[in-house]
Amino acid sequence: MPGVPPEELAREAKFMLALKLFEVGRLSSGKAGKLCGMGRVEFLLAAGRAGVPVLALGDDELSAEFAEND
């Protein structure tokens, strides 16, 4: 991208890599955050803004969660 400083491109590339590895389950949120220079909560917030679900529960897990809170 013309006019974009290399440092910004490197930061974005690290975030995108960490985001994808988190999305496919290869990295935890903490490790993904560390990879791109963020804390866990900061990474989770950024992942949510990027449209990546930060909590993946299956149907059985979701049903169990709601059953426990009844």
Q: How would you characterize this protein structure?
A:
- The structure is a single chain.
- With 70 residues, this protein is mainly alpha-helical.
- The protein has one domain.
- Helix content is 64%, strand content 0%.
- It is built from four helices and no strands.
- The relative contact order is 0.12.
- The mean pLDDT is 88.
- Pfam families: UPF0175.
Count up the helices. Answer: 4
- Write down the secondary-structure element order: HHHH
**Number of self-contained structural domains:** 1
State which percent range the strand residues make up.
under 5%
Rg on CA atoms, Å: 15 Å
- Percentage of residues in helical conformation: 55-70%
Compute the separation of the termini in Å.
52 Å
Outline type: elongated
Task: Find the structural class using helix and strand composition.
Answer: mainly alpha
